[in-house]
Structures are given as structure tokens and as C-alpha cells.
Amino acid sequence: MRTEHDQAGAGEAPAPKPVKKNYIRPLDIKHGRIDMGHGAGGKAAAQLIEELFLAAFDNEFLRQGDDGAVLALPAFDPAEGRLVMATDGHVISPLFFPGGDIGCLSVHGTVNDVAMSGARPLYLSASFIIEEGFPLIDLQRIVQSMAAASREAGVPVVTGDTKVVEQGKGDGVFISTTGVGVLPPGVSISGRHARPGDVVLVSGSIGDHGVAVLSQRESLAFETTIQSDTAALHTLVAAMLAAAPGAVRVLRDPTRGGLATTLNEVARQSGVGMLLQEAAIPVKPQVDAACELLGLDPLYVANEGKLIAVVAPEAAEAVLAAMRAHPLGQDAARIGEVTTDPHHFVQMATRFGGRRVVDWLSGEQLPRIC
Amino acid sequence: MRTEHDQAGAGEAPAPKPVKKNYIRPLDIKHGRIDMGHGAGGKAAAQLIEELFLAAFDNEFLRQGDDGAVLALPAFDPAEGRLVMATDGHVISPLFFPGGDIGCLSVHGTVNDVAMSGARPLYLSASFIIEEGFPLIDLQRIVQSMAAASREAGVPVVTGDTKVVEQGKGDGVFISTTGVGVLPPGVSISGRHARPGDVVLVSGSIGDHGVAVLSQRESLAFETTIQSDTAALHTLVAAMLAAAPGAVRVLRDPTRGGLATTLNEVARQSGVGMLLQEAAIPVKPQVDAACELLGLDPLYVANEGKLIAVVAPEAAEAVLAAMRAHPLGQDAARIGEVTTDPHHFVQMATRFGGRRVVDWLSGEQLPRIC
Amino acid sequence: MVDLGGIRKPISIALVPEAEVGDYVIVHVGHAIGMIDPEEAEKTLALFAEMQAMTGAEVQS
Amino acid sequence: MVDLGGIRKPISIALVPEAEVGDYVIVHVGHAIGMIDPEEAEKTLALFAEMQAMTGAEVQS
Amino acid sequence: MKYIDEFRDGELAKQIGERIRAEADPQRSYSFMEFCGGHTHAISRYGVLELLPSNVRMVHGPGCPVCVLPIGRIDLAIRLALERDAIVCTYGDTMRVPASDSLSLIKAKARGGDIRMVYSAADALAIARANPQREVVFFAIGFETTTPPTALAIRDAQREGLANFSVLCCHVLTPSAITHILESPEVRQFGTVPIDGFVGPAHVSIVIGSAPYDHFAEEYRKPVVIAGFEPLDVMQAILMLVRQVNRGAAHVENEFTRAVTPEGNLRAQALVSEVFELRPSFEWRGLGEVPYSALKIREAFAAFDAERRFDLAYQSVPDNKACECGAILRGVKKPTDCKIFGTVCTPENPVGSCMVSSEGACAAHYTYGRFRDIPIVAATATEEVTP
Amino acid sequence: MKYIDEFRDGELAKQIGERIRAEADPQRSYSFMEFCGGHTHAISRYGVLELLPSNVRMVHGPGCPVCVLPIGRIDLAIRLALERDAIVCTYGDTMRVPASDSLSLIKAKARGGDIRMVYSAADALAIARANPQREVVFFAIGFETTTPPTALAIRDAQREGLANFSVLCCHVLTPSAITHILESPEVRQFGTVPIDGFVGPAHVSIVIGSAPYDHFAEEYRKPVVIAGFEPLDVMQAILMLVRQVNRGAAHVENEFTRAVTPEGNLRAQALVSEVFELRPSFEWRGLGEVPYSALKIREAFAAFDAERRFDLAYQSVPDNKACECGAILRGVKKPTDCKIFGTVCTPENPVGSCMVSSEGACAAHYTYGRFRDIPIVAATATEEVTP
Ligand code: SF4
Ligand code: SF4
Ligand SMILES: [Mg+2]
Ligand SMILES: [Mg+2]
Ligand SMILES: [Mg+2]
Ligand SMILES: [Mg+2]
Ligand SMILES: [Mg+2]
Ligand SMILES: [Mg+2]
Ligand SMILES: [Mg+2]
Ligand SMILES: [Mg+2]
Ligand SMILES: [Mg+2]
Ligand SMILES: [Mg+2]
């Protein structure tokens, strides 16, 4: 009788069942269709990428599995550095939100993906897919915001493309940006490099962007003074790398799917577990409240100006200090550590004193907020 | 009385009026909206780019005005080469057409834009924007076609992104690809480099792609054996450059807007005119017939595996021979020459013995065929 | 209009029309379905505190 | 179904029901609106050719 | 956040945990069923189980509104969207519940159905106003908490004369479900489910009051403690249940006095009985047909009843054979007893409805508790408060 | 392409050109109006003008169906799309004609109007079948050539009982327009427009036959030569006109005997008169109200008449003040006489309707002939066939 309920009590260790193989049903390519979950940045998205995209394109660069690819430039001396390339499509709705718009977002998002490899972002390209009927005044506002973000980041938009689709075949404007940058020799940062014992840092409070965007959704409409955190993080990265050369193992911006999904990605890529301290994770009270009201978990809400870093334990304080000295890292915090875990679980000691798994986002928590 | 009708007769030169300033009404940003014409690759698109995008992003790279930007890589020795970056969004409808699909098209289109600078294309990124409900089987077919095209071209897709938009906010799948390549030292090819006296070459018959795509449109549906010419042209470019180093001044792929629009772009960029020989322009009989039936002009129909080249007159024969020796240039032809013309008109001596202006595409001749 | 930690959102009080500005309500699917009685809330918290005292006492013993 | 230089497209022949396979028709907005009389076409071409002969003669003179 | 943060205090939690440990009789075990999904969620999300001694066990009940929705009902909603071209509005989690033909509302949406997630019944009404040329159906699910807003929407639609709005009513009743469990053979005859008491619903009780539970306490000799949805509420309720069990008592206590009164929200109750009446029988997923366990729309509001408007005939559809949801909802089995838990059935690809909502027993265990099944992690991860 | 390529032969063109040069009296000038846009297009696209001697001039007539459409009619179509939520189907070029409020059909589409380009009236019918819940209006424009397919569509819609299809009929009549020009004060009284003859319509004549032109030839003493749309047809017709003028003749000749008979397509004519009847008056852009110059749908087909169905009231709207389209359509002015030709008014931003279709006088000149106005280019570009 007792074993029938052993999930309900914690102790008196009944022989736990061996874990089942981490099997998930493969995509039903023959009958399946894309649904919103495939775009939410969680497990369904990861599965789609693995079983459909990676299976087709398979190459050493894509297999790096990071948000930017580190490349060799055959004509150049590799001792001078390597090229990094990253791309992101931006399909956010609404296009304008407190603290930003799709324009600056599309610059920051890609600058950050390049920066998360440790590279210095140099150039951007932009592909616009505009819906017939889109007001020119809105387009101008977006493009000007993009230009301002690009100037501020020092990363020019050097080439672009514009397509127009019929009304009802698009949604205002989609912007796909691609960035290239140069990775200095000796820097090697990747989601694959986390090791047990490493420290997990976050550069500031989480969930601001997603809450700011959701507050503008017609169906949810709530008032908040929260603004999107959208920002280019490459100078913060430079400061961190300078503070402790060689100690930063992983950098990633927790965008779609939020902190939880990003850390799960890293855990899987590196083959490790993580243990987070809920009490240490910075969340603004209004973000907490909005999540409470909407039934969301801030760990899964998108950020556009935050990064997580996995650093060697001995350098953690130095890196943290460098982050806090940077305007975009003032609220940086140490939020957990990397553990040995063949199941690659990200766990969290709750503020309440319990412990739980912080899993990948599943399904679609928040539609199209980045 | 006579002067009132002097446009009707050619000779007896009545004092021609001075040409009016090439003024066009500026965009009405305040009240205007994007219409399908802004995406058709003609003058309206050019105006949008100039008055809205260029005005905001203004930088030396964008001002190059070519389909790919030639960049400096600060960390590297410029004597080893320069980086080239190009991007294109692909929004074609239907997604599958005789001779190809959006997948291979999105590889060829961007490989070609990189190649048209004279660079060797090295890497591609791909951003997918997929409409909810899109069948996985179609997505797989597209991605596999893309992978095959990329492998065949030797240009891997090294990074990507996938977004999903709600039904009615997209159209199956949009693919934005960005390519980077390396431009060998000493190569300088640009739409700005045409000079009077130069020779205009085309690598084969025009209009195949557009006609193949249109034949699949539900509303037009006609039967043809014409296939899209979609192909990666970088090896053809390499052969041309090897045949006459330094002699190739302009390379461009006449995609949206067709041959006519591409040549007008070059004429404007270089500040020259052109005189084409209609009889010399290769057009397949079925393409001619389809255009006759649909009221189109093959000069404005898109190509995806053709290039135009402007070459120094003394090297024209050598370059033409190199083109004809390449499988993708067998039907290459010399179709005209560059003239001095402050109005930057592209003119054409008709097969009929007359002469006409071959203007930019205006409005939307063919919706979304690349 | 409810205010939760600075987040303000319009909700229907058709089900608790007696709610006034300043009252605390329980919100479910966009509707206030009941009010919070501050006195009772304090009592419950006091109960917890009492427990703390008790447990604390035991731990000391 | 019309065939023009290898392009085949279905059109309506409701306005020229007498058209048969092999006939040449004039197509306007998806409809055959009339037929081409091959004899008359030849006559017209002959007229042009005659002209050519005349002009040719003049140029020679 | 006032009246929230205070009830999530980790220090207090530890103290209450120690109290429970101190008062629970080590010679026996205690099994309490939390009826509500809200409690299931709180227990999982805050890690409440780790603060409990090992002889106090929580059994998940059938109180997750999404989990008890039978396939046949979702099929009706899907058909309205796909075959009748209606705009179907529903609450978020309902979108992912598996239905027939490998469909779900979200997949039906991907197949072209106009299916919209709403935050409240009033949003569905607004959609109906904005689309006068379309039929708009609100797929209404939930217990006594979500019923009053649905009743309001129907009443407002009638007042406005909104001709294109209707409700596919799937509202169910908490007391009937509890009775059904207590009447089930496992509990009554075989005694295989040793439920020693209930953590009573929070929000439901705000509406219906605490009085309706008196019946169980008396009839089935089970203590009930109505508790709020915050983790301290749950812990306090567990302590109160332990004390009742220790005393051999079986009455209704109210931990949630700050919001729950004996009589409940009378205005809401009146509105509900104006619009709805008892349904003679309704199928619950896992529990089967349960007599007088649900509501239907009264004759006076028949125009707004999607079942009448579209002449829908309910067709029962058996659950996936491997799925143990039914037994889990009755407290007879636990998620890990299901052969496909965590492998074929995951939150991304739920096979049963318990894997859908984070209030579902399987999803809660998968998402928050899974590490506890896994030895290698459990060894380093359990931070037990050893005495 | 049989019966096409033969009529585009450059060598023959040169010969006919020399013939015209040889026969045209150098002491006088010849002005011929090509009524049809199809001829305007052929002249421009193939560069026919360069093969003519300088004393033979071509005047563009009002035969471009898009150019003669008055603003008020396009406004009606736009309003059907934007205010009545109808699907409006129309032929391609009509999309870009400027209307009131800086709109055009393409801009109305960008503002959310469901406006679709069709290749044929039958496509509009197919759209109506596919969208039974929507009103589908075919915005029917054109001369006698496009009228029979519209009539067919209406008749088929009636036979099928297609309840959601209607036609906004703007079909106009060629003979009325020609008469109107010949009656205009410039031509009749002031003699400022020396039209010496007409190149008669190609496709229009296939339908109406050559007989209807006999009237002008007699009444106004103007020769008419019906010509095909290929460039050699046009040149041959010009030669035939020169010969008539030289002889002082004024009769109807038919260069297009391969397709045009004296009586025309009787079946098409019968169909048109079954469905349509004469409109007492119709506004033409540039020509103003012209009595009995257009068709309307007969009472028997009233259900398919968008004007009746939507109770539309036509409202005349004046053209842009700067626009000289009216005078150009009457042959009184030429495109370069317009102050905004090629500057404010371009094919991308047409101000007047003549700048829209490539058959329009202004667009044709802008697109194909503009270099001839420009000295520096003309110097190198004119390849005249000097005698
Ligand atoms: S794991 Fe899935 S299939 Fe198994 S009981 Fe739970 S919901 Fe049903
Ligand atoms: S140029 Fe434009 S405005 Fe002027 S007459 Fe022609 S169409 Fe009218
Ligand atoms: Mg990226
Ligand atoms: Mg990114
Ligand atoms: Mg491009
Ligand atoms: Mg839209
Ligand atoms: Mg990233
Ligand atoms: Mg490009
Ligand atoms: Mg391109
Ligand atoms: Mg990405
Ligand atoms: Mg679509
Ligand atoms: Mg190009």
C-alpha cells in the first residue's frame, strides 16, 4: 500500500524506480503540423530543430548548438581570430511596447547572440517582411529605432532586404537580423562548457521584457510601470571577459522561454545539472505581481537585455564585480551552481524551503513576445 | 500646331524641351501605407529604401548600393581580403514550383548576392518564420531542398532561427537567409563601376523563373514545360573572374523586377545609360508565349539563376567564352552596351527596328515570385 | 481596477458589488469572486506566529 | 485549352462555339472572342510581301 | 504583495513542518487528498512535500478542471470550430487537452479552426460583439469558481440581445465529485485508498461557502479543512487535519476564514441558479458518468446554449488505454504508476489530461517533482529537515 | 508564335515605312488617331514612330479602358470594398487608377479592402462560388471586347442562382466615343485638332464588325482603317490611311480581315443585348457625360447589378486640376503639354488615369518614348531611316 503513494511523501526512501530513458515521441512528420508551441522556445521547438532542421543541415557549426556559430575564415590567419555569425527572426506583437519596439529589439537580439559567443559584434544585416497596408509612419518609427540602437551599439546595418506580403499573409512587420563579429583568439565560450561546481550568474532582474510586452496585449491589458529591458550586452560581455580571462564558460541571453529554458539548454548541452536558489534570483515586485495575476512563472518569461553566465567558481566574484560595475549589470546576482546530474535537471531550492525541478518551457506560455 | 504634336513624329527636330528634373513625389510618410508595389522591386521599392531605410541607417556600407556589402574585418589583415555580407527574405508563393521551391531558392538567392560582389560565399544563416498549421511534411521537404542546395553549393547553413506566427499572420513559411563570403584582394565589382563603352552580358535566357512560378498560380494556371532556373552562380562568377581578371566591372542577378529593373539600377548607380539590342536578348519561346498570353514583358520577369555582367569591351569576348564554357552560362549573350546618358535611361533597339526606353518596373507586375 | 504590487488591471466586480476602493478581493478569471477580510487574515497569520512560538519553544527545550 | 508557343491554358470558347481543335482564335480576358481566318491572314501577309517587292524595286532603281 | 507574500514565508513553513512532524503519530500514516488543482500546484511549486514527515502523504484529487474534461466534450468544441466555422473561445490550458483523432484545440487551431484563448468569459463576449457576422462559442469549463463569470456573460448577452454568442457549458460541481470518490468501490468497499481527510477547496469555497462540506464530514466520517492556495495555508490545513485525525474528529474546519464564510457568495450563487440548473448526468474523465454532477443552461437562456443552438449530440470517447488518469483522479494510482509517464506522455505531448495543466497530477509531478523518483539526484538533492 | 511573329517582322516594317515615306505628300502633314489603347501600346513598345516620316503623326485616342474610367466610378468600387465589406474583383490595371481621398483600389486594398485582381470575369464568378457568405462584386470595365465575357458571367450566375455575385457595370461603347470626339468643338468648330483619319479598333471590331464605322466615314468624311494589334498591322493601316487621304477618300477599310468581318461576332452581340441595354448617359474621364455611350444591366438581371443591389448613387468627382487627361483623350493635347508629366505624375504615382495603364497615352510616352524629348539622348539615339 505504501509504495502506491510513495510520490506523496519524501522520506523513508522506498527503493526509487530507475529513471526511464529520456525518450520523447518523435515528430509525426507525415501528419503533424506546426503549432504555436513549436515557436515558443521550449522543448517542442528544440525537438523541431533537432529532428527536422539539424537532421537536414547537419554540419559541425550547427552542431555547436549555440545562438551564434563560430566559423573559420579560410582566407585569413586563424591566429587573428574567428568569425561569429548569428541570426534571429523577430515577430513580436505588439510591435511597440513600453521600453522599446521591434526595431531596437531586432538589433539588440542579434548583437547579443553574437556577443554571447564572446565575440565583438561588427555588422548587421536586416531582412524586412512587411504586410501590405502597414503605415509608413510606423515603419519609419521602427526603422529609426533600429538605426538608433545600431548606432548606440556601434554595429551598423550594412545590407538589407524588403519584401511585401499581402494583407492577411503577414503581421505588420517581421524583421530577421543577422550579425557577424570577430572572436578574439583564445576565447572559447559555449553552452557546452559548463562544469559541475561552476557558478551561475544572472546580470539583473528577470521577466521585465515579457511583462512589458504582455501589458500591451489587448486581451490582457494591464497597467504597469515595467519597461522592457531590451539592450545590447556586448560591452557588458567585454567587461566580464576582461575581469577574468578564461573563466567565463557559458554566456547566454535568456530570451524566449526565459531563464528556465535557457538554463535547461545549457544543462543539456554540457551534460550537467544545476541547482538554483530561488531567493537569489532577482525579480522585480511588479513582475512578480503580474505573473501572479496572469498565472505565469517569471522563470519562463522572456528577457531582452539580460544574460546568464556560467563561470569558474574561483572567478565568480571577480566576474560578478565587473558585472555590477557595468550599467547593464548593476543587479547582477549569483543564482546557483552547476551540479553533476545524468538527467540534466535544473533544480531549484524554493524560497519556501522545498525543492523542485525547473523544467523546459512546455507548450506556449506566452505568444510572440520576442 | 505642329509643336502640339511633336511627340508623335520623330524627325524634323522641333527644339526639344529641356528635360525636367528627375523629381518624384517623396513618400507620404504621414498618411502612406505599404502596398504591394513597394515589394515588387521597382521604383517604388527603390524609393522606400532610399527615403526610409537609407535615410535612417545611413552608413558607407549601405551606400554601396549593391546586393551585398563589402566590409572590413578590423581584427584581420586587409591584404588577405574583405568580408562580404548579403541578405534576402524569401516570401514566394506558391512555395513549390517547377524546378524548385522556397528552400533551394533561399540558398541560391543569397549565395548569388554574395557572389555578385566577386566574393567566394562561405556560410549561410537562415531565419524561418512559419505559419501555424504548416504541414511538417512540407517543411521537411523545404528544409531538405535547402540542405541539398547548400551542400551542392558548398556553403553550409551554420546558424538559424525559427519563429511561429498564428494562422493568418504568415503565409506558410518565409525564409530570410544571410550569407557571408570573402572577397579576394584586388577584386572590386559593384553596380557603380559601369563605364560608357562597356559591354553588357547576360548568362542565359531570361524570365524562366517567373513564368515557372506563375504557371502554378491558381488564378492563372497554365501548362508549360518551363522550369525555374534557380541555381547558385558563384562558380560561374569564379570562372568569369579567372578568364579576365580586373575586367568584370558589374555583376548582378536580375531577380525581382527582372533584367530591366536590374539594368536600370546599375545605370543609376553608375550614372550611365545603356543601349540594349532586343534581338540579342535570349528568351525561350515558351517564356515569350506565356508573356504574350498574360500581357507581361519578359524583361520584367524574375530570374534566379542568371546574372548580368558589365565588362570592359576588350575583355568581353574572353568573359563570354568563359561563361559559355560553364554549364550555367551556355546561352550567355552580349546584349548591349553602356552609353553616356545624364538621364540614365536604359534604351533598347527593338527587333522591329524602333527604339524605346526600358524603364524600371513600376507598380507590381508579378506578385511574390521570389 | 485591481492593483497587485503595482500592476493595475480592470476586473469585474459584478459578483462582489460591495467591494470598495481599498478593499482586497480574490480574483479568478478576471472577476472578483470574494473579498478578503483583513481581520480574519490577521488571525490566521497570528495562528502561524503562535505555531512559530510553540515550535521555537520546543526547539529550545 | 489554347496553346501558344507551348504554353497551354484553358479558356472559354462560349463566344465562339464553332471553334474546333486546331483553329486559331483571338483571346481576350480569358475568352476566345473571335477566330482567325488563315486565308485572310495569308492575304494580309502577301500584301506586306508585295509592298516589300515594290519598295525593293524602288530602292534598286 | 499583501495577503500573498505573508503566506509564502519559508521560515514559518519550516516551523509548521516541524509542528506536523511533532504531532503526527509515527506509528501510523496519514493520507490526505487535496481536491483542488490549485493546491496540487502550490504543493509542487513550493516543494511543500519536502517539509512533511514521510508518514504524511498527499493524494491528488480530481479538482483540476482541465483534467476532468472528457474527450467527447473537447471533440464537440473542436467540431464547432472546424465544421461549424464558429470562433471558439476558451481558457488557456484547455487548448492542449488531447482529444480524438490526435487533435487538441491547439492542433485544431493549426488546422484552421478559429480558436482563441481568453482570460475571462467577458473577453469571449467582447469577441462576439466585435464579430457580429460570426458565431462565437465560449467553451466554459471549471468548478463553482468559474461558473458565476459564465453566468454573468450569458445574462449580459441576453440583456444586450447578442445573437451570435453561445456557451458550451461544461461546468461541474465539486461536492458531487467528492461524493463520487467517497462512494467509489476502492474507497468504500476495498479500502484501498486510505483517505484520512480532505484539504478543502479555496476558491470554490469562497463561492459555495463551507457549509456544503458538512455532509461529508458527517456522512463519511472524514475531516475537511478548507485552505487557501498559498503554501502556508496548505501546511496549516495539513496540521489541522493531523490534529483531527489524532483526535478521531471528522468535522469541517476553515483555515481560509479570510475569504471563506459558511454561506459563501450568495449573490454569485443566485446568479448561477438563475442561469443554470442541474444536469441529470455528466461524464467526467476518469470518473465516468456522475449523476447530478454538472450544470446546464436553463430553458430561459436556451438561445445561448451551444448544445441546443448547434444541435450537438454528446458522444463518449474512451481514454487512451495506457492512460491511468482515471485511477489517478480517484486517488487510486499515482503518476509514476502509469507506464507511459514521462516517456510517451510528457507535457509537450500529453496523452492524458492530467499531463496538461500544471494543476494536473501528472504534469505537476513531471514538472516539479520528477527528480524525487531518480536515485542519483535524490541522493544529493534531498535536504530533509532531520530532527 | 503563329499569326504573331509574322506581324512583328522588322524587315517588313522598314519596307512599309519606306512606302509610307514615298507616298506621303511632303507638302502636307497627316494626323491619324489610333482609337485603341492596344494600338498605342504597340506603337510605343515596338518603336513604330521612328519608322514614320516626320509629317505623319499619331494622336492617341480615348480607347484605353482604364483611362476613360471616371474617378466617381472607382470611388464606388472602393466603397463597396471598404464600407460594404464586399470582395471586389477587377482587371489588373484598374487597381492603380487614382480615385478620391488619395486612394486607388490598390491603396484601398492596403487599407484592408478585399480587392482581387482577376484575369477574367469567370475568375470573379469562381471567387463568388468559393465565398458564399461574402458579397462578390465584379468591377467590370472595358469596351465591346470585355463586355461579352461579363455578359456570360452574369448569365451563368443567373443560371446557377449565385446569390452573392453582382457586377458594377462600367462597360462603354466605342462608336459613341468616336462620335463624341468628332462632335467636340475643337474638332468640329475650331479645327484645332486636324484628325485626318482613324486607325480603327482591332479586338472591338472582332466583336462589333466593321459596319458600325461606315457612319463616321460618311458623316464626318474621315477614313477609317481597322487594324490588328501587331506593329505591322498598324504600319499597314497608316499606309492605307495615307493613300485614302491622298485620294481624298473617306471610307472604311479593313486591314484586319483575318479576324474582323463586316457583321462581327453575332453570338457575342446577341448575348450582350440579352444582358445589357443602353445607358442614357455615362461619364467618361476626359470627355464628360456622353449620351448613350455605355451599357447597363437589364431589369431581368437586376439581382446581379451592383448599382441596384447596393443602392449606389453615382457622384461625379472632378479630375486633378493639373491633369490634362481630358484634352489628351480628345487628342487636343499631348502628354508633354501637361505641367506635371514625368515629375509629379509618373507611373509609380499616377495623378491622372492616362499614366496608369501602359495603354494610356501618358504612361506609354513616359515608359517607351520619353527619351525622344531629351536632346542629349536624342542626338545619339535616333536611328532614322534617312532616304
Ligand atoms: S502520465 Fe499521461 S497517460 Fe499516464 S496517467 Fe498521466 S496523463 Fe495519463
Ligand atoms: S501626365 Fe498625369 S496628370 Fe498629366 S495628363 Fe497625363 S495622366 Fe494626367
Ligand atoms: Mg539567434
Ligand atoms: Mg536571440
Ligand atoms: Mg534583396
Ligand atoms: Mg493581419
Ligand atoms: Mg540567444
Ligand atoms: Mg540581398
Ligand atoms: Mg537577391
Ligand atoms: Mg534564435
Ligand atoms: Mg494564410
Ligand atoms: Mg541580387
Automatic annotation (TrEMBL), chains A, B:
CDD domains: HypE. It comes from the Bacteria. Coiled coil: none annotated. One of its GO terms (biological process) is protein maturation. Residues 65-182 form the PurM-like N-terminal domain. Residues 195-347 form the PurM-like C-terminal domain. Belongs to the HypE family. This is Hydrogenase expression/formation protein HypE. It comes from Hydrogenophaga pseudoflava (Pseudomonas carboxydoflava). The gene is hypE.
UniProtKB/TrEMBL annotation, chains C, D:
Pfam families: HupF_HypC (PF01455). InterPro entries: Hydrogenase_HupF/HypC (IPR001109). One of its GO terms (biological process) is protein maturation. Belongs to the HupF/HypC family. This is Hydrogenase 2 accessory protein HypG. Signal peptide: none annotated. SUPFAM superfamilies: HupF/HypC-like. The lineage of its organism: Bacteria, Pseudomonadati, Pseudomonadota, Betaproteobacteria, Burkholderiales. It comes from the Bacteria. GO terms for molecular function: carbon dioxide binding; iron ion binding.
UniProtKB/TrEMBL annotation, chains E, F:
Keywords: Iron, Metal-binding. GO terms for biological process: protein maturation. The gene is hypD. This is Hydrogenase maturation factor. PANTHER family: HYDROGENASE MATURATION FACTOR HYPD (PTHR30149:SF0), HYDROGENASE PROTEIN ASSEMBLY PROTEIN HYPD (PTHR30149). The keyword DNA damage does not apply. GO terms for molecular function: 4 iron, 4 sulfur cluster binding; carbon monoxide binding; iron ion binding. InterPro entries: Hyd_form_HypD, HypD_1, HypD_2_sf. It holds the Pfam family HypD. Belongs to the HypD family.
